[in-house]
Amino acid sequence: MSSGANKIIEPGTHFLMGNEACALGAVVAGCKFFAFYPITPANEIAEYMSVLLPKVKGIYIQMEDEISSIASVIGASWAGRKAMTATSGPGFTLMQENIGYAVATETPCVIVDVQRCGPSTGTPPLPMQGDVYQAKYGSHSEYPIIALAPSSVKEMFTLTIESFNLAEKYRTPVILLSDALVGHLMETFEIPDLSQIEIVERKKPDKETSDAKYFLDEDVAPMPVFGCGYKAHVTGSTHDEKGLRNVEDPVYVDKVVRALHRKIEKHKENIVKVETKFLDDAEIALLTYGSVARTAIHVVNQARKTGIKVGIIRLITLWPFPDVQVQSAARKTGRIVVMENNLGQVVNKVSEVAAKYADVKFLPPRIIGSLHEPEYVINFLKEVY
Amino acid sequence: MTRTEIIIGGFGGQGSVLAGVILGRAAAYDGKKVAQSRSYGAEARGGAARSEVVIADEEIDYPLVITADYLVAMSQPAFERYVSKVKASGLVVIEEDLVRPERKLPENLKLVKVPATKIASREFGRPMVANMVMLGALAALTGVVTIDSLIKSIRASVSKGMEEINVAALKKGQEYTSAMVGGVHETS
Q: In CA terms, which of A94, A163, A220, B106 is 20 to 30 Å from B187?
């Protein structure tokens, strides 16, 4: 199905809010269904989707809450449409049960979480990176997930497209873990000719056969979307390759849990992305992601001028965790400073995989809910350097 | 690295955020890299609102203001809160009737007073376009963006039917400061 985006999006320089860039990216990726319940700081995604989707024959629907939003997104995906919802921390919490259902049923969909300060209602317009664990462990039991962290308005565009591509390719929900700073930031960025952007479509079965397998393939089974003549059974309960339930035999549990994990683990190399700069001769590496990376990049650029040999590793993919890349940065530098806008989430994972290769330190912002100031980070580096 | 940083602050409802968006979009039309951020309370009106604009020739790494080159203050709290973020040789444009700069300011800091709300009310019967009067003043005093781009940006940013009054208010602010000698308006 053509996205129709070329009729409404001009290539060239744009000056947009991160949330608007996310909506544009979704439409470029071929999103045709968006369900939403209002919440700051994600509202502009919905506002813009409500303008864009009717122009590309898509459906925008405001649901009664976040639970129904994600439920309808899963339904739309099974009806063959690329589908997305957006929310912030409190709504993301409500969506967790159905995110697990989407993982179990191998339903491609995109969930944008524009993180704000919590816990609970917290402070709506201020940024925090408090949902990193929720993205991975928010739903019950054990499951793999893909989560990406945009650092700029440009990445709100490109990584939304990437989220759809990964969701379609691996038949999984993908979380775009933005925050109030990147979501509300307005920046200039270039949109290339849309024909240059890779768009992935889900694999569908060639034809109906009696031994068709539509689930639990580590190389991703074709998706028998409704209305195309396939006979398929879709359930969140433990099932076999045909989707038929078996809730007695632990062998089936074993198969489902392992197959879902292997589907992501096996392709991790193709999924995971990090960005590094100045690591080759660095004696210390700043490890960061999302909005906080903007301070880190600034600090690295400034510190290099004063002779401090500092480099950066920016995690674009948070889940699956880029352990190989983090270990490599740890080996190269011997010292890692993890910067996040929380009291320490990714740092635990970094310590787990890299502590034997490097000294790992954690630097929260001076004030949680605000970006690390450059001077504060530089002073910290001078102290430890 | 050329990097110009501007803070626009006031009460919620005065249009500080919109002024920042219009300024940012104008700089984008001028071919610059721009990052514009905002902060505001939960209220639609009242409370405090702030817009930060960073304009540069190269890619912008840190997107917030570090040390402001210019401050536009439309309320006393905004002035009090942000004047210390302005660099020593910077420029502060204040809404003359809403801000009293009582504290001692650095010697080289340039202070310009613009009765923007009075001008907006007198000329257009609409105090709400005071933000455009302030923006016109800032542009005329600093040349940080071109007036042509600002006008184009206003037309792309404000509600339909409100374009011309905003453009006219911008021009009033520009004229007001152009007539100034040494930061003081001789006839007022």
A: B106
